[in-house]
Amino acid sequence: MSRFLVVLIVLLLVLIGGIVFLSTRSTEQEPVRMEKVVPLDNLTK
Fold first, then answer.
1. What backbone phi and psi angles, to 5 degrees, belong to 20?
2. What is the reported pLDDT for 30?
3. Model confidence pLDDT, tens digit, residues 1-45
4. Burial class of residue 22 in the structure, from the number of CB atoms within 10 Å of its CB (0-12 exposed, 13-18 middle, 19+ buried)
């Protein structure tokens, strides 16, 4: 095999491995409760 072909195969394997690794990571985060002051002017109408 030529050196170029070996380098190309290694790069493809690293790229596919990175995609598989990133797809298995858990990225879900629990919602954060935010308290915000609501003006009561809108509710009196």
1. -65, -40
2. 87
3. 799 999 999 999 999 999 999 998 887 888 899 898 877 776 665
4. exposed
Q: Which token pair is 35? A: 């308290």
Greatest Cα pair distance in the chain:
80
Which tokens hold the place of 26?
């858990």
Q: DSSP for 1-45?
A: --HHHHHHHHHHHHHHHHHHHHHHS----PPPP------GGGGG-
Structure-derived torsion over alpha carbons of residues 34, 37, 38, 39, reported in degrees to the nearest 10: -170
Token code pair at residue 8:
């190309």
Place of tokens 């954060």: 32
